[in-house]
What we know:
Elements: H1 4-9, H2 12-26, H3 33-49, H4 55-86
Amino acid sequence: MSNPVEKVFSQRQTVLETVRGARDVFGSTKTTRKQYKAMQDALGFALLYGPEDLRVTVEATLTEANRRELYFIPLWQRTDEETLAGKGA
Length: 89
């Protein structure tokens, strides 16, 4: 276990906190694209390195996050357009 990511995500508490944090991220309409990507990456690490008894929970959370991403895409596009309009582009 020389990989520092593996050390962190092999801890049960870290995986549970990651799942809880993911639900906060995809439950908020203020979530940015960058935050969403970071949440998906963290869930991926939890799936790879986490305890086996939590694997189903992490898989279910990752699946739900991927489905909910479809609802965020129009929101992010609107935000991108507003940002561009504000810059005079």
